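Morning - heme C inputs below, output right after.
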Amino acid sequence: MKKIFIATTLTASVLFAGGNGYTKTANEVSKELIKTLGGELKKHLKANGPVDALQFCSLNAYNLTKKVSEKYGKDIDVKRISLKPRNPANTPSSDEATILSSLEAMHKVGVKPRNVIQDKGDKVVVYKPLLIKKKACLICHGDINKKPELAKKIKEIYPNDKATGYKMGDLRGAIVVTIKKEEKTSAK
Ligand code: HEC
């Protein structure tokens, strides 16, 4: 019945073969992104502290995200968005902001934010809620006024930074995985 379409990479084709392939793919891609960014962050925090780690993130987080995207081929894209972005490039579109706001509204009344799956015709978009689960996140996204040197650096690199004041358990944003649907044949 349903044929497995040609995916650009072996990884992608294996991932797409599953029943609920889109969620599976999104989980895999987002896991890889968290592993990549988290690993580098941890390394830099440990080696030279928050100011160095901040600089590393500001120079590399966006490109590392792109690299993870590229690893999965041209039919898959991954990015991070937030209603309170640090990097202006992570500002959500109005559609995306609506979805983040509804996740936020649910989270506020104690409903666990779940993956949101959006059908956009030729592609599927999976939104994976991103919570502040680790204390380390608060170093740069919590009450940064406790660390004047770091606060100064953040202001210097991101004059319009909105990504502070978070507490443990807060919804920080979402990882958005966009997956192109399989090609439909004319015989259908
Ligand atoms: C050393 C400082 C630092 C720490 C610690 C840190 N971040 Fe960030 N974070 C940044 C910087 C800098 C950016 C902007 C980088 C970019 O994406 O270009 C950022 C961006 C983000 C974004 C993308 C949206 C936006 O605001 O631009 C998310 C989501 C995020 N961080 C979540 C987390 C989470 C979750 C943790 C804990 C695991 C964490 N951060 C720990 C510095 C930090």
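Note: Residues 10-180 form one domain.

O.
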